[in-house]
Design goal:
The complex is a heterodimer of chains A (about 240) and B (about 725). Chain A has about 240 residues and is α/β, with parallel strands linked by helices. Chain A has a single domain, classed as 3-Layer(aba) Sandwich (Rossmann fold). Helices cover about 25% and strands about 25% of the residues of chain A. In chain A, helix 1 links the parallel strand 1 and strand 2. The model of chain A has no long low-confidence stretch (mean pLDDT about 95). Chain B has about 725 residues and is an alpha+beta fold. Among the domains of chain B are: about 220 residues, Phosphoribosyl-aminoimidazole Synthetase, Chain A, domain 2, CATH 3.90.650.10; about 190 residues, Alpha-Beta Complex (Phosphoribosyl-aminoimidazole Synthetase, Chain A, domain 2). In chain B, about 35% of the residues lie in helices and about 25% in strands. In chain B, helix 7 packs parallel to helix 9. The longest helix of chain B is centred in the N-terminal third of the chain and has 21 residues. Classes of the chains: A alpha/beta (about 240), B alpha+beta (about 725). Chains A and B meet through helix 1 and strand 6 of A and helix 7 and helix 9 of B.
């Protein structure tokens, strides 16, 4: 089974959750790897988990983005291996310019933790290929800086290149301001790179992968990791 | 008084005792050390005789009071470690740092027994929200708790928030942490062998927090703002690294003892670690890494955050150092354990303090006079005013009142989900439920009935524990242990001491009756302010943990199925004293508070527990603040289903109860259940002699409708869920704008 690394930066705190779901729920060959030990050649893919790498000092994700581990992640990207960033992982990927756009302070100026609905805009990413376009599922957000922003021209490129993967919506699938937890532009919750192998999202699918933990009494969050698993196994 | 040029809060008699024991006048460093160790915060010298009433043992108890955290066995070699502590005084002065370091401290307590912290719980108390100062406090306290808990990756899953004018100048910020540890991996803060090293790990020591405990052991006064250096500085990122480094170091098996740096700093930690092992300690302050140049006095007294003490054999030091270096956490050997039972402090080799350990750790108790507060008689005489004509308005007011309204504005700022364990959290059920394994969960909840305790401290103290029991029972759990946090005014006031001792007597009686141990806690006295001389209402907080041995039994409070019968368990009495109905609608504080009936409480809990176990229950909710009407409204709002209720059916103790008693009384021992099979539940109740009845039905129409007991069956309450929800969910947010 392909090996994947869950990279632990100082301050990562969803590493164990990602590991638990990847390993015990999804039966993937996942390993926790301390950032200084990460060598991309040993792995077929990587997950950058949530948390507060380097205590969010300066701004979230920026210090980790310049770490030697991220040089390895960039090499991994050149080989088009799949890379998934969740929450702080998304922030790091954006700061490292492996993903377009930036994550600003939430419009409420507060940390927001709540269950939200999102819909799948494209199923071409390694984290959405097992969803159908338009599928709706729920997961919790837990962040202070998740307000997605990108310049207008580049936003158009995102649409033209089918790079918007997930959008916040209400339970019926409508992209309303009320369903947007952080003020993200166009309700964007997750994007992928042009090539489609790097994907980042702010909500936490790993926390929505077990029925008992999900107030909506489903386990659709696990389709994100199922997609990742399938991508790794090379199923087209 | 002044001793060797140092100002100390010791009495003349205490100083005389110390001099006799030492055979000389203490040096400046020694005076400072004795001052903090003899403070109420470290020594419990006033409260210890009262605390002795609490039962502390039981078959599940692994560690009880006296250790960093209580530890209880939950089977399968697993244990829950938990502890509660107050950070009231620091939060009054600097609410952000005060609250954050409160969380930081309690995390270290749980870590210090070798447990991985998995959940935080925060009971917080403020003045009324119409006061701008309260809003400033609450904004920063919530931000401080959130910032720290979120960053360290520990879910904040429960708590309680109270608003009352008595907390205006003295907010209460209690912080609790739960951890999970294998039974055979528990570590003890107990010195093992002379010659073992003492290794200080973590943050550099600074001037922050010097005299934190003596600051906490006196009233707040006008110049308290100037004591801001007594508040510590939080660093949750470093704490996260310390958590991981500590847990990794423990895995090596080379750590002989650990203890967290809390109140009393290096003095407290070295004397307690040595005393538990019957040894002494020899500290060299020049080895302590500091932020700035500090004197020996300051190093021994500083309460700088994010520090842990490890003890190990000198030959194992390298193994531990390698782990601390992986996480980039500073570490220094600052001393060693010695066979003589003394705490010796050196500065560059020169002895600056040499104190017998027991003089620091065994402080003589102080006998406090006690007197029933004069106002109690007056409060009890308070009559219930006439029932208002518009009960819809009454319920809407209650739902939007700060003590009852949803605390969504607060808990949405906390990461409630990290750790992948949260099954039910704040607002979804009476207690929060965390998954421990595929077959086991724990339920946790803190409760404090300060309004009842104000009128009757015994009833309030017992009532908090009884509410714990109801809250846990309603989620399908069996309570197994509690910890307590006793927040009171100045104990030198006999009326305050009466409130303290009566509340603890109430708690103890309840715990003894239910065979629940109290495995730890904290005492926070002097919660009063010098200018107004007003103490806070007596606030005994009890925090309980319960066990759910089958995940299918986890029960939440929202209505789930149209057509379900609504069954009420327990008797309602004319006990609106100290209720939210009294304070919100009439602005009254007195009246008759709920009576204590342990037997009835136990039987009601048994009926609920059995009904859940037999899969008869779709939703369960206990009755507390706001009484029956508020509980029903919450079940409607959360489930988005309506209900029709006949008041006549509600079981009551006496015939002369009025509609407002039935709707808003906060009588103990009561629950609302929904079920497809009401007869089976009624039969269980009958067998146990518990009053129970079908009081209504869950409806698809989204309204809560209540019919009165008159022959005409008039609607005395009829409200749409949408309007109730808006009041309930958004009131606090509107007030905070």
């Amino acid at each position: 089974m392909p090996r994947i690394a869950i990279i632990q930066f100082p301050g990562s705190n969803c590493d164990m959750d990602a590991y638990h779901v990847a390993r015990e729920v999804m039966h993937m060959n996942a390993e926790l790897v301390w950032h200084t030990d990460f060598k991309e050649s040993k792995f077929e893919g990587a997950i950058l988990p949530g948390g507060f790498s380097y205590g969010d000092h300066l701004r979230s994700g920026i210090i980790a983005a310049f770490s030697p581990a991220m040089k390895e992640v960039k090499k991994m990207n050149k080989e088009r291996k799949p890379i998934l960033g969740i929450c702080n992982g998304f922030q790091i990927l954006a700061e490292a310019q492996l993903l377009p756009g930036a994550l600003l302070r939430n419009s409420s100026m507060r940390f927001v933790c709540k269950w939200i609905s999102m819909k799948v805009v494209t199923s071409r990413s390694p984290a959405s290929r097992k969803f159908a376009k338009g599928d709706i599922f729920q997961a919790p957000t837990a962040h202070g800086e998740g307000n997605y922003y990108i310049e207008e021209e580049k936003l158009k490129e995102l649409y033209d290149n089918d790079q918007i993967v997930f959008k916040y919506c209400n339970i019926a699938g409508m992209e309303t301001p009320d369903s947007n937890p952080n003020g993200s532009l166009e309700n964007i919750a997750g994007v992928c790179n042009l090539e489609g192998n790097v994907i980042g999202l702010m909500p936490h699918p790993e926390r929505a992968s077990e029925r008992i933990l999900n107030p909506f009494k489903n386990e659709k969050g696990r389709i994100v990791l199922e997609s990742f698993k399938e991508y790794l196994q090379g199923k087209k | 008084m002044i001793v060797s040029g140092v100002s100390v809060d010791l009495t003349k008699e205490e100083m005389k005792y110390i001099k006799e024991r030492m055979g000389r006048e203490p040096s400046a460093v020694e005076a400072g050390m004795l001052d903090i160790m003899w403070s109420e915060h470290c020594s419990y010298k006033a409260s210890r005789p009262v605390l002795k009433m609490l039962p502390t043992s039981g078959k599940r108890v692994i560690l009880g009071p006296g250790y960093d955290a209580g530890v209880v066995d939950i089977g399968d070699n697993q244990c829950i470690a938990f502890k509660i502590e107050s950070h009231n005084h620091p939060s009054a002065i600097d609410p952000f740092s005060g609250a954050a370091t409160g969380i930081g401290g309690i995390i270290r307590d749980v870590l210090a027994v070798g447990a991985r912290p998995i959940a935080l719980v925060d009971p917080i108390f403020f003045g009324r929200l119409n006061n701008p100062h309260t809003k400033w406090l609450m904004n920063n306290v919530v931000h401080g708790i959130g910032d720290y808990g979120n960053c360290t990756g520990i879910a904040t899953v429960a708590g309680e928030t109270h608003f009352d004018h008595s907390f205006e100048k003295n907010p209460l910020v209690n912080c609790a942490c739960f951890g999970l540890v294998d039974r055979d991996k528990i570590v003890y803060a107990k010195a093992k062998e002379a010659g073992d090293l003492l290794v200080l790990v973590g943050s550099a020591t600074g001037k922050d927090g010097i005299h934190g405990v003596t600051f906490a052991s006196k009233n707040l006064h006008k110049k308290s703002e100037e004591e801001r250096p007594a508040v510590q500085i939080p660093d949750p990122f470093l704490k996260k690294l310390i958590i991981e480094a500590t847990l990794e170091a423990l895995k090596t098996g080379k750590v002989k003892a650990i203890k967290d740096f809390g109140g009393g700093g290096l003095t407290c930690i070295s004397s307690e670690i040595a005393s538990k092992g019957g040894l002494g300690a020899d500290i060299e302050v020049s080895q302590v890494h500091t932020r700035e140049k500090l004197t020996a006095f300051e190093i021994m007294l500083s309460e700088s955050q994010e520090r842990m003490m490890f003890s190990c054999n000198p030959k194992d030091l390298k193994i531990l150092e390698k782990i601390f270096e992986k996480y980039n956490v500073a570490h220094r050997v600052v001393g060693k354990l010695i066979p003589e039972k003394k705490l010796i402090v050196r500065e560059n080799g020169k002895i600056v303090a040499d104190v017998p350990i027991e003089l620091l750790t065994d402080v003589p108790t102080v006998k406090m006079p006690s007197k029933k507060p004069r106002e109690i008689e007056k409060l009890l005489r308070q009559k219930k005013p006439h029932i208002p004509s518009n009960l819809n308005e009454v319920l809407m007011k209650l739902l939007g009142s700060e003590n009852i309204a949803s605390k969504r504005w607060i808990y949405e700022q906390y990461d409630t989900e990290v750790g992948d364990r949260t099954v039910l959290k704040c607002g979804e059920s009476d207690a929060s439920v965390l998954k421990i394994s595929d077959k086991k969960a724990i339920a946790i909840k803190s409760d404090c009935n300060y309004k009842h305790a104000y009128i009757d401290p015994y009833s309030g103290g017992a009532g908090g524990v009884l509410e714990n029991i109801r809250n846990l029972t309603a989620t399908g759990a069996v309570p197994i242990a509690i910890v307590d946090n006793l927040n009171f005014g100045n104990p030198n006031n006999p009326e305050v001491f009466y409130q303290l001792s009566e509340s603890v007597r109430g708690m103890s009686d309840a715990l003894n009756f239910f065979q629940l141990p109290c495995v730890g806690g904290n005492v926070s006295l002097y919660n009063e302010e010098d200018t107004s001389m007003k103490a806070i209402k007596p606030s005994p907080v009890s925090l309980a943990v319960g066990l759910i041995d089958n995940l299918e039994n986890i029960t939440s409070l929202e209505f789930k199925q149209e057509g379900d019968s609504i069954v009420m368990i327990g008797n309602t009495a004319m006990e609106t004293g100290g209720s939210e109905y009294f304070s919100v609608i009439f602005g009254l504080e007195g009246g008759i508070p709920p009576a204590i009936d342990f037997e009835a409480e136990k039987n009601a809990a048994h009926v609920v527990h059995e009904s859940i176990k037999r899969k008869l229950v779709n939703a369960a909710h206990d009755l507390s603040s706001g009484g029956l009407a508020v509980s029903l409204a919450e079940m409607c709002i959360k489930g988005n289903l309506g209900a029709e209720i006949t008041l006549e059916a509600v079981p009551s103790k006496t015939k002369n109860v009025q509609a407002d008693d039935l709707l808003f009384s906060e009588s103990y021992g009561r629950y609302v259940l929904t079920t497809k099979d009401p007869q089976k539940i009624l039969k269980l109740a009958e067998e146990k002699g518990v009053k129970a009845a079908i009081i209504g039905r869950v409806m698809s129409e989204k309204r809560l409708t209540v019919y009165d007991s008159s022959e005409k069956k008039q609607k005395i309450m009829d409200l749409a869920i949408t309007s109730m929800r808006d009041e309930f969910e958004n009131s606090i947010e509107r007030k905070m704008r």
